[in-house]
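Hi C.,

You asked whether I'd gotten around to modeling the 131-residue construct. I have! Everything is below, sequence then structure, no commentary in between.
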Amino acid sequence: MTITLRRLLVGTALTLAAGTLLAQASGLTRTLVGRADVSVPGREAVVARVEVAPGAKAGRHTHPGDEISYVVEGEATLLIDGQAPRQVNAGESFVIPAGVVHDAHNNGSSPIKLIGVYVVEKGKPLATPAP
């Protein structure tokens, strides 16, 4: 393995770990379960199990690509900049375009669990906090 490839792999691992720690601190847990190249050059698909704890907020953030999510359990209020707040429930899905600031508030007493698919730019953090 070349030094450049090794540095890229270590940098990617550190970026993912930092994103996971930030997410967990806000009441959101994102567990990566898959990653693969897609047909668009410079992009990859990342699949994750996502959970927002009861009473927690995911925190305003963006992704460097589209988020496509399916709600497995629970319900939350989805806040997407430029749109009216929307309640999402088990069995529903939603799409958030690349770079759009969004948040999710779980006002219930049980966690909301999602499967998120992110088609994002390679080499960028999966999520970035937003003001």
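If it helps when you're writing up: Strands lie at 28-37, 43-52, 61-62, 65-73, 75-80, 86-89, 93-96, 102-105, 112-121, 128-129.

Thanks,
B.
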